[in-house]
Amino acid sequence: MLNITALPLGIYQTNCYIFYEESSPKCCVVDPGGEPHQVEKFCQTRNLTVEAILLTHGHFDHVGAVKELAETYGCPVYIHEGDLTLPEKFTAGPLYYTNFYDEGDVLELAGLTIRVIHTPGHTEGSVCLIVDDAIISGDTLFARSCGRWDLPGGDGEKLKASLQRFKTMEGEYRIFPGHGKSTTLALEQEYNPYLKDKK
Predict the structure, then answer these.
(1) Which pLDDT belongs to residue 1?
(2) Residue 199 falls within a domain, yes or no?
(3) CA pair distance 12, 43, nearest whole angstrom
């Protein structure tokens, strides 16, 4: 059974997600935006070891604790290559990573199968991660909203195209965004104005 825990971290309360299979001693961490001790504390209380860190994009509020956690656990860090072009003022210095992933990649980590979809718009390298019935959507899709596209690397037309994928996606999925509360694909398809046809 898949377990997903959200830890809102840092001054922007970015949702860091820790997910793991109930029977596994390993977990994956998505977007550790700060406060690495909070992630370590959670893992210690559940006797979990971090197998990998996965980034939905490279903005500073999503990557603040990456290097410290990667060094603590000796684990790889995945990011989309597109975000290497982000200005360092938006990444709080050089991005720390070890591996790239892209559209269609399938990762087998911590006893789970993770599918990567490339969803540019918020940043060029934004991705969403699909694990079982869960979509970790980063800053692409929020409950009743979507990510901004007016910062360097953002592109409104690309974001519209990425959101179109959610509009037409089939299946019963839970959605875990980079900020704010979780939601479901069905609710967003029905109520999110950014998934509606413009009159």
Answers:
(1) 87
(2) no
(3) 22
Residue 44's closest CA among 27, 68, 63, 67?
Answer: 27
Residue 187 belongs to domain with CATH number = 3.60.15.10
How deeply is 176 buried, as exposed, middle or buried, from its count of CB atoms within 10 A (0-12, 13-18, 19+)? buried
pTM: 0.96
Q: What is the mean pLDDT of residues 37-50?
A: 97
Helix (H) or strand (E) holding 165: helix 156-168
At residue 199, the pLDDT reads 43
* 95: its two tokens: 């991005």
Counting the structural domains of the chain, the total is: 1
Question: Which among 36, 34, 79, 29 has a CA at the least distance from the CA of 58?
Answer: 79
Average pLDDT for 7-26:
95
